Amino acid sequence: MPHSSEFERLRVVLVAPRNPLNIGAAARAMSNFGFLQLRVVNPYEAAFREARSAVGASAVLARTEIYKTVNDAVTDCALVVGTTTARQRELEAPLLQVKDGARKIRGRLRSGGVALLFGSEKRGLSNLDLSHCHWLMRIPTREDHPSMNLGQAVAVCLYEVARETRPVAPKERVRLARSGEVERLTRLLFEALSASGYVNPPSAAIKEERLRQLVRRLRLSATDAPVWLGMLRQILWKLHAASGSPDTQQ
Amino acid sequence: MPHSSEFERLRVVLVAPRNPLNIGAAARAMSNFGFLQLRVVNPYEAAFREARSAVGASAVLARTEIYKTVNDAVTDCALVVGTTTARQRELEAPLLQVKDGARKIRGRLRSGGVALLFGSEKRGLSNLDLSHCHWLMRIPTREDHPSMNLGQAVAVCLYEVARETRPVAPKERVRLARSGEVERLTRLLFEALSASGYVNPPSAAIKEERLRQLVRRLRLSATDAPVWLGMLRQILWKLHAASGSPDTQQ
Q1: Domain boundary residue among B162, B194, B225?
Q2: Which residue of B has its CA nearest to A35?
Q3: Do residues A197 and A157 both lie within one domain?
């Protein structure tokens, strides 16, 4: 299969999966389509142990990494994409059909790591999980029965990412900042807003999740990110210094 | 969902399936993508009984028809398509990639019944089964691990048949913020950086022009711009208030 080094850059992230059969099925589909990097966030422990013995995906499962939080699992990825049935929630992030999203993902794999998130079988991705995503992707399903089995959803998404392995004209040449850096910026900004009274813990004018989305929509480049971090640190230092807070060291 | 009457003409035919979970998964994927006609040839009886109770596919399973032979199951279909990993056998029938085959199937559904055959989990379709097929279709998988799970293979094939029936997703049309607003943001930020000591008029750590470029590269949307302006105003107010500057009115 071509482009395997690019495929290596895709991290399939299962968030809080419950059923070992689904973890095994996801790993098998990954192996079928040549994506070998599985990350599991906060799985039911017994489920993960059982999945390890699943047929036909041992190579993927042997190197699967386990994380405590979504934030930890996506920190080295420049693009974070969530999957959703897009029914229940008010989504702020852009929502793409899987075929359009997959094309974007293919393009971005040429230059950096991409995380593709799948939520738990019962509830999908939470709003907190979604706030880490740059955009969302959905498989077009029937309105009367939109919710797919997890293993099948993974198979369809990966099939679509692998579908056009022929090179498309390269377009996007800005290297975007990694998730870890964007998250650091989000935290600093949140802190600055708290210190300024814009955010008030009990009745937050803007919730941290919304702020995270707002920052992610900026499409911060890898080159500019450190500059923004530096500016925010300075502002924050001044805010703390002025209010006599002890936290004046950056 | 559009074309549902055409989708009714597709018969998904599982030949000698062994695992009730796979029968249930196939039925669920069918329901997700709007194909409701499942036929099962010579299943393990216990497996089929168990599958009937599968979650999320009861409507499909309730009307599933059982046949003794492939011949009986495809007799009312004008086109019969087999699925295969195309490894072991010498195939006489033409072999198409699933995306090309799916397009053909869509075309034929406009005028008549089409049967899409999937073999058993262990052995796939037999040569006898294949002899009923006009042509064959395969999902492109990795050479080292070509064989897909049955439920996932059904999901990918049906996804591909349904793939082009929907109106194309509208392209991302984020309306960007106007220059005036971006400039206002730039000024506020510059002011905040001055108040924080990040910018020093004589030996500016960052010149205003560079800051302007930095802000413009963010691709700020028209919807988000006022939120950013609001946040910056608040931070600036706090910076001024703390330093006892007279300019605390916004």
Answers
A1: B162
A2: B142
A3: no
The answer to whether residues A195 and A245 touch, using CB atoms and an 8 Å cutoff, is yes
Domain membership of residue A225 (yes or no) is yes
CB A33 within 8 A of CB A6: no
Q: Indicate the residue of B31, B228, B239 with minimum beta-carbon distance to A142.
A: B31
List chain A residues with CB under 8 Å of B140: 162
> According to DSSP H, which parts of chain B are helical?
4-7, 20-33, 45-51, 58-62, 70-74, 98-109, 127-130, 150-162, 179-196, 208-216, 225-243
Burial B139-153 (b: 16+ CB within 10 A, else e): bbbbeebebbbbbbb
Q: Is B181 helix (H, G, I), strand (E, B) or coil?
A: helix
- Yes or no, beta carbons of A238 and B195 under 8 Å apart: yes
- Give me the residues of B, 122-161, that contact A with CB < 8 A: 139-143, 145-149, 151-152, 155-156, 159-160
For residue A190, give how far its alpha carbon lies from the nearest alpha carbon of chain B (Å): 10
Report the number of distinct structural domains present in chain A. 2
Q: For residue A149, which residues of chain B lie inside 8 Å, CB to CB?
A: 25, 28-29, 56, 151, 155
Query: Does residue B171 sit within a domain?
Result: no
Contact A238 B196 (CB under 8 A): yes
Q: Determine, yes or no, domain membership for A174.
A: no
- What 8-state DSSP symbol labels residue A142? -
Nearest to A234 among B140, B148, B193 (CB): B193
Query: Are B86 and B39 in the same domain?
Result: yes
Across the 250 residues of chain A, what is the mean pLDDT of every consecutive 10-residue run?
75 94 94 95 84 77 93 93 77 86 94 94 90 92 90 97 65 74 89 85 70 86 89 90 59
Burial label, A201 (beta-carbon count in 10 A; 0-12, 13-18, 19+): exposed
**What residue numbers bound the domain in which B151 lies?**
4-162
Total-model pTM: 0.78
To the nearest whole Å, the CA of B231 is away from the closest chain A CA by 7
Q: What are residue A97's DSSP bridge partners?
A: A138
**Reported ipTM:** 0.76
| Residues in chain B closer than 8 A to A151 (CB atoms) | 25, 149, 151-152
Residue B167 lies in a domain: no
